[in-house]
Design a protein that fits this description.
Blueprint (H helix, E strand, L loop, with lengths): L3 H4 L9 H13 L6 H11 L4 H8 L5 H8 L4
Length: 75
């Protein structure tokens, strides 16, 4: 699998944040040598708009670990 798989992934309107993050994570672990910056940018672009994404765009996380930590407050 390649990073292009992330480009076709989108969080559906009725899909929970937790479910989407689990699916995203499952795909990420299958991509060899994925650049962490590409992973983070892909996550930011594939989340549906809402309070969580608003908070991420106002203060972007510096890593996926920080994004996951912030997501806990929205799950």
């Amino acid at each position: 699998m390649t990073s292009t798989a992330l480009a076709s992934l989108w969080q559906a309107e009725d899909e929970s944040l937790q479910k989407f993050m689990n699916m995203f994570g499952w795909i990420v672990v299958q991509i060899r040598n994925l650049n962490p910056e590409v992973e983070l940018q892909s996550m930011l672009l594939t989340l549906r708009l809402g309070k969580f994404t608003d908070s991420l765009w106002k203060k972007p996380p510096s890593s996926m670990d920080k994004l996951h930590e912030r997501a806990k407050g929205y799950i």
